Amino acid sequence: MTETTRLLLLSNSTMPGTPFFTWSKSYVTSFLAGKVSDVLFIPWAGVTISFDNYLGFVKEAFATLGLHVRSLHHEKDAVAAVADASCFVVGGGNTFALLARLYESGVLEHLRERVLAGAPYIGWSAGANIACPTIMTTNDMPVVQPPSLRALNLIPFQLNPHYHELKFANQGGETRADRLNEFLILNPTRLVLGCRKVCCWSVTVPNSICAAKGLRGCLWRASLLKTWCR
Question: Is the pTM of this model over 0.85?
Fold first, then answer.
């Protein structure tokens, strides 16, 4: 791991009633600081949307930032494409599908190596989840079974994108907080950061963690006490 390992991790890409990837554009611009002109998009979390359609949305949004986007699903040699990329953008969708495809393609460890070597990493939702040590705090249904729940392990804590504390009337089931408490009871050495919508985190490992935008996050520890943080 180097001091240049840099990630921008977003809870979500889009808010209802707004175009795709609107709220976070200024934070992407600040994060990249004009040092990158081409990015490699990884659309493999997509399940209900085709990879080509997903790429179209991302291309349109990132073109307004002056960034050229190519997609990993168009590359004949995925490992070589990852080795050659200067910046990675990993979209949301289903975290289990994304991780399974990264394993199946043989890309997972190569992607980790490139980011640890300094290539900037931008991920939202599922793309943020796989930056964690595992995907054990995702909200997604396990629609496929990856070879392992171990992910990129780029940050020393778990994320829970789309975090909220809502409990609907007559719900009768567990809340998001209940589920995270269950995780920490069985994994007491772990740390979990709940990321609300319209929240992104600029992370430099191992130097600092800095909230870049949005509502307060919620930090969960094994004591089951939560700490609000900005």
Answer: yes
